Prior knowledge:
Layout: H1 2-17, H2 36-39, H3 43-51, H4 55-60, H5 70-75, E1 81-82, H6 92-95, H7 109-128, H8 137-162, H9 187-205, H10 219-233, H11 241-259, E2 289-293, H12 332-335, E3 347-348, H13 350-355, H14 365-370, E4 371-372, E5 374-376, E6 381-382, H15 385-390, H16 395-398, E7 402-403, E8 408-413, H17 420-426, E9 433-436, H18 437-440, E10 441-442, E11 447-448, E12 451-452, E13 467-468, E14 477-478, E15 486-490, E16 495-498, E17 502-506, H19 507-521, H20 527-537, H21 549-560, H22 566-572, H23 580-585, H24 587-590, H25 614-617
Parallel strand pairs: 8-9
Antiparallel strand pairs: 1-3, 2-17, 4-14, 5-8, 6-7, 10-11, 12-13, 15-16
Helix pairs in contact: 7-8, 8-9, 9-10, 10-11, 10-19, 11-19, 19-20, 19-21
Amino acid sequence: MKNNIKKIAFIAVAISLCTTFNSCSLDEEDPGGFTFENLSQTTTGFQTLVNNIYFGLERSFYGNTNKINFMAITEAQTDLWTTPRNMDNTNQQYFWFYAGGSPNTTYTLSFLYSLYDGIGSCNKVLQYVHIPPYNTEAERNAKAAEARFMRAVYYYHAAEQFGGATIVTEKNTSIDQSVYVPVKNSPQEIYDQIIIPDLIYAIEWLPKGDYTAITRPTKKSAIGFLARAYLQATRWVDDKTDYYRNALTYAKMLIDDWEVSGGANYMTYMYPNYGDIFSEAENFTNKEALWKHAYFSDATYNGSSNGAHVLNLSHTLFRCQLNEFPARENNADTYVTWEGSVNGSFMPTQHLLSLFDNGDGTLDPRFYKIFQNDWNANKDFVWTKDFANKFDKDTTAVVGQAIAVGEAAIEFIMPQDADYAAKKAAKHTSKHLIVDYADVYNDAAKSIFMKHSYVNTTPDYKADGSVENFFSYFYPSLTKHNTTKFYPQNVSRLRFGNTSAMHILRMSEMYLIAAEADLKVNNGANALAYLNKVRSRAGAQNLSGTVTIRTILDERGRELCGEWVRYYDLARTGMLDNATYLTETNPSLAAYFNVDYVLRPFDTSTFLPSLNNDSIYQNDGYGY
């Protein structure tokens, strides 16, 4: 048994090596005496090949920040997020269009490998799926559908991140690497030849499934992703009408299943209570998720060669810089709690927070359900004069006061909070740190205050606005990815594997897709109704008036922030064609905007040097 496991493991690793454009001879003859054809003689052996289609997903996609920050390439460099304190000297390739410097052209290598790892593994399944002795053709086709769904996902991100890639559907044994000149297919070719047909096939043959489905797609996964793909393809095509129409058709297929059939056909569902969507009780069996993914970890298997702790780090990304206040620290006991303890790397922009402002002194109810604004101490702390001065406290009121573990430590207050005026009046004398929105966010400049004007002045902390703003370490922190589901891989080194499920595609997005497509197909006749279905479920005020693409983008920002879509949203709707939109919404980022950097570079360390047309293959604005 152990030898068989080792041989199957060898095959799985070998598949991952057959990922670039050149041929791999493993299935002709391999050192272990196995071939892919031999492995496919049984349904159990063939399942090894099927399982391997998710290896690329594990290496660089949802949740992963180890080799490439997937959240950053899909959410950052937009109107919604900036780096902590709005500093432009960190993560420049992700958040700042390289901040005016020379572009990093090597950070995409692992992502490219993962893309073609995944694509190659899907192609292997499709190459050998005719061999296993399944009882019915429906069983066989379901395996092919699983591979085609994942191939569509990989190519979707290849098209959107790089603006084109080479279509590979089978192994080419005749490639001569010394003269290899691959065709770089256009995004439209990728959508029309791979993504759309693969997803249509997947819709036909994937199982209906149930609410417990994790990672493996079901019919609703394919329908939802096809609606998303048709909409996103409008970024690239000249004649967009049919794509919008099809996006609307497939989005409505799921909407009608829920509203008319109660989910009878595709297991669709919309939680009546918005707060249930991201609750831990609903995480693994989340009914609203159309496709969800989780990583597996236990005492004998940590999920990857790099360890379980790097697979899903989404829970670490959106937290404010908690540990800049001395009543907080990053420790093992707090790391595994819902609020967590590690500092994050995403800060909400002024624009994102403004989207939740109803304009009548209240906030959209979703704000309080998906953002955390207060934290308790996880470390004993006694106010000293130095810290009181740093955080603009009245020293006579706070010096010597103690904050014990479990007591209030940090509180961020919003102008729309019911008790804002009272909290604001107490911020200089309160025992805990009260951080005022008005001390962090600059509404006039749509940015972050980099300097602070002190009330309780000293020679080092002045009232003239010349001192570093220490309050900008603290801000509302998105909790959509918070969890207490961890595998303790190495507690002393704070390495915990996040085993919670990530909701990659949700039912509410179908209403937003329908609204955008309806705007183009029917001049928005039904767009407002689709938007208000999302808003009314959240307890938000209904919108009125004329729907525009900005109306829809704003609603997508409120509903889907932090869910791996915003970069694609802005690119699709033309908001990254020039700096105009970012100048209005995130002017700090707009200052560095470069249209060439909207697409990612093909890696120049290994990927491009393996080609003989590297100068043509590379995207504009990057070296080769």
